[in-house]
Amino acid sequence: MPDNLTSLSQAELIRIIYEQHDHIQALERQVAELKAQADRQGPPKPPMWVKANVPSKPKKTRQRRQHGYARKCDVPTKQVYHAFEACPDCGGQLGAGSIGYKRQVIELPEVPVAVTEHIVLKRYCFACKRRVMPKVNLSAVVVGQQRLGIRLMSTIGFLRQRCRLPLNLIQVYLSGIYKLHVSEGALVKVLDRTATKGEEQYNKLKDQVRASPVVYGDETGNRQCGKNGYDWSFSTPEVHYLTYRKTRSQVVVEEVLGEVFEGVLVSDFYSSYNTYEGFHQRCWVHYLRDMHKLTQDHKDNEQVQQWAQAIHALYTEATDWQGPAADLPIGIQHQQRIDKQHELEGKLQALCEPWVATNTPMAGLASRGMRFLPELFTFVRFTGVEPTNNRAERMVRPTVVQRKISGGTRSEKGSKTRTILTSLFDTWHLQGKDPLKECQLLLAACQ
């Protein structure tokens, strides 16, 4: 086909048109043949690297949460505004502003210790012919004639009891954060003074323990003046009472609980707790722990394995029991709990009694189960009683950690200070109070 069609004659143009028409018809016939061939062969297969189209699953409608879990902003103590005074592009005047976004930065202020010097002036009265000066009452900020204020004393007690810091680390903290240098002897005096102020409140904790319907008891070793002694812990869901004694005998249980306690005592199997003649709940964790050790020592003994599984299944049955129906009268509910307790005790007796007088690995734990049979399912009879003594174990754990750090106390006064402060700070924590604030209120009130 010529490049310049405008120079061709009419006859030549007609010839080209007929040639193009014949070519188009040939192409249409070829297309029709290819289409018929493709219909006979079916749709072409996609290449190997092409994934087949899988219909997407319908998206589930997300259940709307009752409240959001995004990080909440704190109430700002200071606000800094950032804005252009003029347009950064042309320098033109800007109109009223609106908030683009906010960002909070949380930082600790660099505040050195505040030393307030109270100067009392005496002035001469020309009428009375004598000098007068006011009597300043500083009981709200300082205890007695000390230099250290109440907030500082409370902070020292908080660092010692709640944070379990040794005295030298408390010195490091006060020096590094507040540029305050306090001697170790001064820290000891602060703790002793705080314990003295809280001794009356500490003694009331014993009365609260005795009035509680359930008490969790435990004891752990400690040292005073290099000699072994024992920390006795008696706690409730809202009170912790810790005392130090040189003995581990039952006289401590009798002293703390006294004759007025009529609740349920939860403890391990230590014999000193046997002096209490009221309702008792023995710790199932200690029993099952020894049961697990028995199964590990006799892995090839099928009788031991089956017996231990049966004991554990009985404990699971007791803990899974939901109790009587709530709409029943109180008397019927209590009777059903007693019946369930006796039923479980009968099942445990049936499991333990055949092995008591035998020469088998189960004899020891079976004898323990029979001996403490009335004290293993007390938690079924009374609501609010836990089947384990884990609460007492958790309460005494910080004391064990502190003992490992310090190695004990150096005097009887030091042991008394430690037990008083531990009891007070733990009780405030259990009651959901701010221990630091409560310590300040204690020091301010005891003036």
Written overview of the protein:
By secondary structure, the chain is an alpha/beta fold. The protein has a domain at 214-391. Helix content is 46%, strand content 9%. The chain is built from 14 helices and 7 strands. It has helices at 10-41, 150-161, 167-178, 184-197, 199-210, 251-257, 284-297, 302-320, 330-352, 363-371, 378-381, 390-406, 412-430, 435-445, and strands spanning 123-125, 130-132, 214-224, 227-235, 240-245, 264-267, 280-282. The strands form 2 sheets. A 5-stranded mixed beta sheet has the order 5-4-3-6-7. It has a two-stranded antiparallel sheet with strand order 1-2. A hairpin with a 4-residue loop joins strand 1 and strand 2 (130-132). Helix 2 packs across helix 14, helix 7 packs antiparallel against helix 8 (302-320) and helix 9 (330-352) runs antiparallel to helix 10 (363-371).
By helix and strand content, what is the structural category? alpha/beta
Given as residue ranges, the uncertain stretches (5+ residues, pLDDT < 50) are none
* Helical residues, percent: 40-55%
Q: State Rg.
A: 42 Å
Number of helices: 14
| Overall average pLDDT | 90
End-to-end distance: 119 Å
Compressed to H and E, one letter per element, the order equals HEEHHHHEEEHEEHHHHHHHH
Shape: flat
As a percent range, the share of strand residues is 5-15%
Report the biggest beta sheet as strand number plus sense, adding barrel if it closes: 5 strands, mixed
User: How many strands in all?
Assistant: 7
Strands of the biggest beta sheet: in what spatial order?
5-4-3-6-7
